[in-house]
Each structure stands twice: as C-alpha cells, then as structure tokens.
Amino acid sequence: MLRDLVIATMLGALASSAAPAEPSGSPGPPKAVEGMVKRVDHVEGTVKVSTGRLGLFGHTLEITGDTEIQVGTRRGGVGDIREGATVKAAYETQDGKDIATRIEVIPSAPTK
What we know:
Layout: H1 2-17, E1 31-41, E2 46-51, E3 57-62, E4 68-71, E5 74-75, E6 86-94, E7 97-106
C-alpha cells in the first residue's frame, strides 16, 4: 500500500512538472542548421540543406517574406541562394513545417 502511494505521488509530480503543450500554429523554440544547399525550389519557396557526415542528411526549409537572407556583409534575396553554397540557417517549426527565419550564405574562399 505504501508502494502504491509513493508511485501515485511520483506520477502526480511528473504530471504537474510537464510543460503545457504549445497551441497548434505557434512557433517552437528557434533551431539552427548548417550545411550545403542541395536544392533551391523557387516555385515551392524551399531550400534543401544537406547536413551531417558526407551530407547524407537533408533538411528542407521554407522561405517566407519574413525570412532574412544575408550574403556575406550585404542583405540578399532568394536568388542569392545557389546550389552548392554553404549556409547557416535559423528556423522555427510551425504547423509541422520548418520556416526559415534567417539564412546566411557563407561566401566561398577564393581559389588561387
């Protein structure tokens, strides 16, 4: 009986400490990804970034009118994101979609 009381108390404590679920549609905590651009889809408004060792993992980000795009030291646009470029991106998950809030295109080193 004491064991049941202890278990019930622990379950109650766990339930009360759990964070409330976020309402649908609200952004989750900001996240980041860094990798090479595998594909830019101007029609869908998405960028696929390969990540991980050998670029085996992909991450698709949606670009909106609110997405800030930075190319080196200047502000850029979607047309500045090219396949093969290295990017750092911040994004939030909204309604199951990863929405890019900022994409930084890393300039490639000049070849000699």
